Amino acid sequence: MVDNALTVAVVGTGRMGGAMTGTLRRAGFPVVVFNRTRHKAEEVAQATGAEVAGTARAAAATADVVICSLADDTAVKAAYAGADGLTAGLRPGAVVAETSTVAPQTVHAVRPLVEDRGAALLDAPVSGSVSLVEVGQLTVMAGGAPEALERARPALDVLAARVFRVGDLGSGMTMKLAVNAVVHALNQALSESLVLAEKAGVERERAYEVIAASAVAAPFVHYKRESFEHPDRSPVAFSLDLVGKDLDLILGLARQVGAGWIRPRRTAGSRATPSRRASRSMT
Questions:
Q1: Which residues contact 200 (CB under 8 A, 6 or more apart)?
Q2: Could you write out the DSSP letters of every residue in 34-63?
Q3: pTM for the complete prediction?
Q4: Which ranges in the chain are annotated with CATH 1.10.1040.10?
Q5: Which of 11, 13, 122, 257 would give a disulfide with 35, using CB separation of 3.0 to 4.6 Å?
Q6: 199 has catalytic annotation
Q7: Where does CATH 3.40.50.720 sit in the chain?
Q8: Cβ-count burial 262-271 (b if 16+ within 10 Å, e if not)
């Protein structure tokens, strides 16, 4: 349990935000949650003992640390702005840890809204799935002022095994996109390798056992084993729309900095399109 705990607000109670709330509550943090769809926040609150706020502003007004976990850039910008946005409720000295996966430019766009309130902004995206949140084993990639990170660290340390400060504001998102480029590639390669082995006569479980003991056995390979071996009985972990969103962000950053990338295949009118197996196995 945490003594003299900071109060934490969690804005966005989807899979990751809901799991973060549970882990913070088990560690003894007072947590206030807000979700645009209120019943999702109420479900998380009922399961964890968190309080529910009616607006992002009301959630932030109670908090020393605000953790934002939303789907995309549009949702992030909307959550910060307006009379009921989270920045309207920020107290001087508060820290906002933006854990959503968005473009570095989005973090810079909302920065003035935070700093005008006397608060600090970190981009602090995470690597790891819900199962890792639940046991406090995420990896946090933080960008922003060192002193802001230290103020937010008690909450982040509960969620993560490692918290890296990788540079100034925006560098956390840059690093997250670099990590996700590897994760999405590994997911696709692992899916296709299992299909190859199975079609050639090797049982899927035995093939996975070998891969998990090989040179490619990243943590992802181990904690996603059930999803790859039994995809039909595993819940969806990451929607294909969000995979496509990530790939578009990665390609956009590559174009911006002049890094050469091969563009993934697309279907008409769609984003970059990964394998269908991704929806069950991705982080």
A1: none
A2: E-SSHHHHHHHHHHH--EE-SSHHHHHHT-
A3: 0.89
A4: 174-281
A5: 13
A6: no
A7: 8-168
A8: eebeeeeeeb
Residue 266 has pLDDT above 50, yes or no: yes
CATH code at 174-281: 1.10.1040.10
Q: Which of 40, 77, 176, 199 is catalytic?
A: 176
Summarize pLDDT for 11-58 with one digit per residue, the tens.
Answer: 999 999 999 999 999 999 999 999 999 999 999 999 999 999 999 999
Q: What is the DSSP string of the chain?
A: --TTPPPEEEE--SHHHHHHHHHHHHTT--EEEE-SSHHHHHHHHHHH--EE-SSHHHHHHT-SEEEE--SSHHHHHHHHSSTTSHHHHPPTT-EEEE-S---HHHHHHHHHHHHTTT-EEEE--EES-HHHHHTT-EEEEEES-HHHHHHHHHHHHHHEEEEEEEESTTHHHHHHHHHHHHHHHHHHHHHHHHHHHHHTT--HHHHHHHHHTSTT--HHHHHTHHHHH-GGGSPP-S-HHHHHHHHHHHHHHHHHHT---PPPPB-TT--B---TTHHHH--
Per-residue pLDDT reduced to its tens digit, 123-179: 999 999 898 999 999 999 999 999 999 999 999 999 999 999 999 999 999 999 999
Classify domain 8-168 by CATH architecture: 3-Layer(aba) Sandwich (3.40)
∠ Cα 77 82 88 (to 5°): 100
Tokens 């819900």 sit on residue:
130
